[in-house]
Amino acid sequence: MLQFSRYKYIFIFIKDNKINFKKIKYLLLNFFKNNIKLEKNHIKGKMKKQTESKMILKIADASQINQILSLYKRVIEIVAKTSPFSLGWNIDTYPSLKWITDSVSKKEMLVFCEEENIVGACSVNHSVHEGFKLVDWKVKEPENKISSIHAFCVNPDFWRTGASIAFLKEVIGYCRKNGDIANHLDVFDTNERAIKLYKKAGFEQREIREMNYESCGIRKSMMMEFVF
Length: 228
Prior knowledge:
single chain; alpha+beta; 5 helices; 2 domains
């Protein structure tokens, strides 16, 4: 009998004075495969808890503008290299330096920070594309109580660590605290990762609509709503 841990044992049976090495190999491979999987899940869970406990939501200030711009540039670059879909962002038009600066000056830019490092960024306000007014939302008014999240992004180094959902939940909580009764946003219908994230946070799909944006032209967008 070979003991590999406190909880699992692998028994070697000898039949007709011959050891079944194929059976041993099969058992060993499955044993180590399962334990590696458990260890990965343990590390992932630990990282998620550490991520959620260290990150803080803040209203961005002028000193963070360049860091926010660098974050958007990196996200655009990584998505272009690794994803099958187009993010539709162009740093010269949106989210541009001017857009970031205006959002910061209006105190609409939120950042998710780990100490002095910005892990995530987005803008939150009550201004939306004209196409939003044509959607059959559950909550349509008052407009000054319906917020919208724009250009939500997270540093690629923190993807799959729980940072994205933690950041999004903090933003939702921020909107609720400020008296909003619903949040509306749109996401390209090909951006499956973002759609999955928004649904996980509680957003519901309302419809798919063609939207015309300066940075990318006409694209099909999934219109999503979170009702507080």
